[in-house]
Amino acid sequence: MTRPCACLATKQEATRVQLYLPIADIPVNVFLILAMGAAVGFVSGMFGIGGGFLMTPLLIFVGIAPAVAVASVASHIAASSFSGAISYWRRRAIDPLLAAVLLTGGTIGTALGVWTFTLLRSLGQLDLMIALSYVILLTTVGGLMFWEGLRAMLRARRGGPVTLRKPGSHGWIHGLPLKVRFKRSKIYLSVIPVIVVGLVIGFIGAVMGIGGGFILVPLMIYLLRVPTSTVIGTSMVLTLVTMVFATMLHAVTNHLVDAVLALILMIGGVTGAQFGARAGQKIRGEHLRLLLGLLVLAVGIRFAVELVIRPQDLFSIRETGGGGPP
Amino acid sequence: MSRRALLAIMGLLAATLAAVPARAERLIVSVSNHRVTVTPNYSGGELVLFGSVEKDAGTPASRSNYDLVVTVSGPRADMVTRRKERKFGIWINTDYRQFLQVPGYLALFSNRPFDEIASPEVQRRQQLGLNNVLLMQRVGPDFADVVPNDPFRSAFVRLRSEHGLYREAPSAVTFLTPTLFRTGIPLPAEVPIGTYNVEIKLFADGALVTKTETAFEIVKVGFEQFVANTARQNGFVYGLVTAFMALMTGWMASIVFRKD
User: Fold this and answer.
1) Of A11, A55, A64, A83, which to mutate for an interface test with B (greatest number of B Cβ within 10 Å)?
2) Distance between CA atoms of A294 and A277, rounded to whole angstroms?
């Protein structure tokens, strides 16, 4: 193409790292997106979470339309969790049976979530519902994890038992029927609570547009008493399958998946996830939970602050295409 | 804009001038580029609009002080402006106003302030300035534009202006000679893709003398166009390819970083 203006040539020289995204329709700094992908990938590899609750707000902050951000992040998480899942698989840290049972519940939960999403949308307060559920979910889960990690750490320092799994204690969950032996995780557990956990995650994921790994990990640890060694790998398998489906769904219904943006995020993400997974194996379980709790709590508080503090601009514009207000 | 292109346009203008039949004033304009292509390294740009006022025997001899207003409007879309209010201690979107088929890009350029060009009445009728451009809104059961200082309208214009998508420059049009003029049309990186209309209005003594229109388009080409088209037309295949790409990237990484 011929440049419309010679003065542009110098400007182009200075901003060579800019790349135009074909679906998002804006130019972005490649290195910035790469770095964001790597940072979130590191966190996701370390804790076995998708990282959608971190990535989506970051992309929106850079100027990408929220709908495109949500849709493209799904494929980024798929790549990150696949690379993570492979390395956990090699370390025999994935329980295939547990993952399969969780997925059964997850599929039902996703369907229910999509239905609820449509219902909330027709009621007209979807944005507020999403923001509120982010705050409530992130601060509670984060707070609980942080508190638990702190207690476990103090217990370890005093020389008490480090692991949460006390062989003698059997809660009501262990009295449920349909028990199955999950060999890799070395637990003997009813499939009912496992399916329910999958269902809850699928539901929350579809309504809030997140993978749900950060809720799944604590639920598996505290409720199902899955040992920390298989928790992360198994949750990654669930995240992987859900996010591949989410990518497909977004591509077919909204046509908003930006493959170029996704690829940059993926390259950064998978690299980060590898280092994250390695770092995660080195850190002790309770430290890991404490750190993740802190991170989740911080994001939750950030959302809460946004709701409470008077925004800089009370007005916002959104393109609605041909339809009415979303 | 290279010097050669400038000369080419001048030549074109001269040729057109010679061929025009005698009438009142007319405007002959051209944009430096009628087709702006979006490539991977696209990061905005600037077009140049050139034009000339042609006088003939019918034109009053005394008339030489021309004023010019250029309106560039991009592809139209429906938008919604929302206002946050504090309820139960948190800030939530309460009120909204729908803007119907408003331009995604809007620029108004003139050679001097609109107030000096024409009376407020003419300004309103000819839609001179961002305050006078018609922005159709759904107000209750009606479709109408509102007063310029309406909170939703002014917030809408302000937010669009902050992104460089709406602009008003009362000194952007330069008269090189009393009848030859030029103006730059800056296009920020986030301009919408589509067809842009350029309307040029000539004023003299506070009244509209004549007007003309031209257009340019901003299009995606090559890879960008291919990706955008595939995403829209073959969503399923596009999704499959993206998902497969995700799995491949993940798999490649685990091989590259394999330690054992």
Assistant:
1) A83
2) 18
